[in-house]
Design a protein that fits this description.
183 residues; alpha/beta; Rossmann fold; 9 strands; 33% strand
Length: 183
Protein backbone atom coordinates (compact mmCIF):
# COMPACT_ATOMS: atom_id res chain seq x y z
CA UNK A 1 0.00 0.00 0.00
CA UNK A 2 1.40 3.38 -1.02
CA UNK A 3 1.76 5.92 1.75
CA UNK A 4 -0.08 9.19 1.09
CA UNK A 5 2.05 12.28 0.64
CA UNK A 6 2.22 14.83 3.46
CA UNK A 7 2.64 18.51 2.69
CA UNK A 8 3.66 21.29 5.02
CA UNK A 9 3.39 25.02 5.50
CA UNK A 10 5.38 27.27 7.84
CA UNK A 11 3.76 29.72 10.26
CA UNK A 12 5.14 33.19 9.48
CA UNK A 13 5.10 35.04 12.80
CA UNK A 14 4.04 35.09 16.42
CA UNK A 15 4.54 32.55 19.17
CA UNK A 16 4.72 29.65 16.70
CA UNK A 17 6.92 31.47 14.17
CA UNK A 18 8.72 29.02 11.87
CA UNK A 19 6.75 26.04 13.22
CA UNK A 20 5.60 23.63 10.55
CA UNK A 21 2.04 22.42 10.18
CA UNK A 22 1.50 19.32 8.09
CA UNK A 23 -1.46 18.49 5.93
CA UNK A 24 -2.44 15.62 3.63
CA UNK A 25 -2.27 15.61 -0.12
CA UNK A 26 -6.00 15.88 -0.75
CA UNK A 27 -8.02 17.15 -3.69
CA UNK A 28 -8.82 20.85 -3.43
CA UNK A 29 -6.63 21.36 -0.37
CA UNK A 30 -4.43 24.35 -1.10
CA UNK A 31 -2.82 26.47 1.61
CA UNK A 32 -2.96 30.24 1.30
CA UNK A 33 0.44 31.14 -0.22
CA UNK A 34 3.06 32.42 2.19
CA UNK A 35 3.29 35.92 0.69
CA UNK A 36 -0.50 36.23 0.66
CA UNK A 37 -0.65 35.33 4.37
CA UNK A 38 2.05 37.94 5.04
CA UNK A 39 0.03 40.59 3.18
CA UNK A 40 -3.17 39.60 4.99
CA UNK A 41 -1.64 39.86 8.45
CA UNK A 42 -0.01 43.16 7.52
CA UNK A 43 -3.51 44.39 6.66
CA UNK A 44 -4.86 43.06 9.95
CA UNK A 45 -2.10 44.73 11.96
CA UNK A 46 0.06 41.69 12.87
CA UNK A 47 -1.20 41.35 16.47
CA UNK A 48 -4.68 39.85 16.85
CA UNK A 49 -4.79 40.00 20.66
CA UNK A 50 -8.33 39.56 21.91
CA UNK A 51 -9.82 38.85 18.47
CA UNK A 52 -12.23 36.01 17.80
CA UNK A 53 -11.75 34.45 14.37
CA UNK A 54 -13.71 32.07 12.16
CA UNK A 55 -11.84 30.00 9.59
CA UNK A 56 -14.49 28.67 7.19
CA UNK A 57 -13.14 26.02 4.84
CA UNK A 58 -10.15 25.74 7.21
CA UNK A 59 -8.40 23.20 4.97
CA UNK A 60 -4.75 23.17 6.04
CA UNK A 61 -5.40 25.48 9.00
CA UNK A 62 -2.70 27.90 7.83
CA UNK A 63 -4.86 31.01 8.39
CA UNK A 64 -6.36 29.88 11.69
CA UNK A 65 -3.08 28.72 13.24
CA UNK A 66 -1.36 31.89 11.99
CA UNK A 67 -4.07 33.96 13.73
CA UNK A 68 -3.60 32.00 16.98
CA UNK A 69 0.16 32.40 16.71
CA UNK A 70 -0.49 36.16 16.62
CA UNK A 71 -2.50 36.06 19.87
CA UNK A 72 -6.06 35.67 18.58
CA UNK A 73 -8.33 34.91 21.54
CA UNK A 74 -10.01 32.00 19.73
CA UNK A 75 -10.32 30.49 16.27
CA UNK A 76 -13.19 28.30 15.16
CA UNK A 77 -12.05 26.12 12.25
CA UNK A 78 -14.81 24.64 10.09
CA UNK A 79 -13.85 21.95 7.59
CA UNK A 80 -16.06 19.47 5.73
CA UNK A 81 -13.36 16.98 4.66
CA UNK A 82 -12.78 14.24 7.27
CA UNK A 83 -9.15 13.83 6.14
CA UNK A 84 -8.40 17.55 6.44
CA UNK A 85 -10.26 17.70 9.76
CA UNK A 86 -8.08 14.92 11.21
CA UNK A 87 -5.01 16.86 10.12
CA UNK A 88 -6.33 20.04 11.79
CA UNK A 89 -6.86 18.11 15.04
CA UNK A 90 -3.31 16.67 14.84
CA UNK A 91 -1.83 20.14 14.29
CA UNK A 92 -3.94 21.54 17.13
CA UNK A 93 -2.48 18.88 19.45
CA UNK A 94 1.09 19.37 18.18
CA UNK A 95 0.92 23.13 18.78
CA UNK A 96 -1.08 22.84 22.03
CA UNK A 97 -3.54 25.22 20.38
CA UNK A 98 -6.20 25.09 23.08
CA UNK A 99 -7.91 28.21 21.67
CA UNK A 100 -8.67 26.37 18.41
CA UNK A 101 -12.05 24.70 18.00
CA UNK A 102 -12.15 22.26 15.07
CA UNK A 103 -15.54 21.30 13.66
CA UNK A 104 -16.13 18.84 10.84
CA UNK A 105 -19.21 20.17 9.08
CA UNK A 106 -20.58 21.99 6.05
CA UNK A 107 -19.89 25.75 6.08
CA UNK A 108 -23.48 26.76 5.33
CA UNK A 109 -24.83 24.39 7.99
CA UNK A 110 -22.38 25.93 10.48
CA UNK A 111 -23.49 29.48 9.62
CA UNK A 112 -27.16 28.58 10.08
CA UNK A 113 -26.50 27.07 13.53
CA UNK A 114 -23.79 29.40 14.88
CA UNK A 115 -24.75 32.56 16.79
CA UNK A 116 -21.27 33.90 17.61
CA UNK A 117 -19.82 37.17 16.33
CA UNK A 118 -16.29 37.24 14.94
CA UNK A 119 -13.75 40.01 14.51
CA UNK A 120 -12.13 38.30 11.52
CA UNK A 121 -13.69 35.72 9.21
CA UNK A 122 -11.33 33.85 6.88
CA UNK A 123 -13.21 32.56 3.85
CA UNK A 124 -11.25 30.53 1.30
CA UNK A 125 -13.85 28.24 -0.30
CA UNK A 126 -13.28 25.78 -3.16
CA UNK A 127 -13.12 27.60 -6.47
CA UNK A 128 -15.67 27.40 -9.30
CA UNK A 129 -18.58 26.36 -7.06
CA UNK A 130 -20.23 29.75 -6.44
CA UNK A 131 -19.55 29.64 -2.69
CA UNK A 132 -18.87 33.36 -2.20
CA UNK A 133 -22.22 34.34 -3.72
CA UNK A 134 -23.93 32.06 -1.18
CA UNK A 135 -21.72 32.90 1.79
CA UNK A 136 -21.30 36.66 1.74
CA UNK A 137 -24.97 37.41 2.53
CA UNK A 138 -24.72 35.03 5.52
CA UNK A 139 -21.43 36.36 6.88
CA UNK A 140 -22.69 39.82 7.85
CA UNK A 141 -24.75 38.33 10.69
CA UNK A 142 -21.58 36.75 12.12
CA UNK A 143 -19.37 39.84 12.10
CA UNK A 144 -18.67 41.71 15.31
CA UNK A 145 -18.83 45.50 15.09
CA UNK A 146 -15.83 46.62 13.06
CA UNK A 147 -15.15 43.05 11.93
CA UNK A 148 -13.72 42.13 8.54
CA UNK A 149 -13.90 39.25 6.09
CA UNK A 150 -10.85 37.92 4.28
CA UNK A 151 -11.94 36.24 1.04
CA UNK A 152 -9.96 34.34 -1.58
CA UNK A 153 -11.37 33.67 -5.03
CA UNK A 154 -10.38 32.86 -8.58
CA UNK A 155 -11.63 36.32 -9.60
CA UNK A 156 -11.45 39.89 -8.30
CA UNK A 157 -14.28 41.01 -6.03
CA UNK A 158 -15.83 44.45 -6.45
CA UNK A 159 -17.68 46.75 -4.05
CA UNK A 160 -21.37 45.86 -3.80
CA UNK A 161 -24.36 47.36 -2.03
CA UNK A 162 -23.43 45.24 0.99
CA UNK A 163 -19.63 44.98 0.96
CA UNK A 164 -16.70 47.35 0.57
CA UNK A 165 -13.36 45.98 -0.64
CA UNK A 166 -10.87 47.59 1.76
CA UNK A 167 -7.75 45.94 0.35
CA UNK A 168 -7.02 43.47 -2.42
CA UNK A 169 -4.18 41.74 -4.18
CA UNK A 170 -3.35 38.98 -6.63
CA UNK A 171 -0.76 36.23 -6.41
CA UNK A 172 -0.65 33.89 -9.39
CA UNK A 173 -4.23 32.77 -9.99
CA UNK A 174 -5.37 33.77 -6.47
CA UNK A 175 -7.26 37.00 -5.84
CA UNK A 176 -7.41 37.96 -2.18
CA UNK A 177 -9.51 40.62 -0.50
CA UNK A 178 -10.27 42.26 2.82
CA UNK A 179 -13.96 43.16 3.01
CA UNK A 180 -16.03 45.31 5.35
CA UNK A 181 -19.81 45.19 5.62
CA UNK A 182 -21.58 48.41 4.66
CA UNK A 183 -24.41 47.67 7.11
Amino acid sequence: MQKSKTNQVRINAGIWRSRIIKFPDAEGLRPTPDRVRQALFNWLGQDLTGKACLDLFAGTGALGFEALSRNAKAVTMVEFSPVACRSLLQNKATLNADAAQVLQMDAMQFLVQDTHKYDVIFCDPPYSKGWLDKLLPQLRAHLAEGGVVYAEAEYALQDTDDWQVLKHGKAGAVYYHLLKSKH
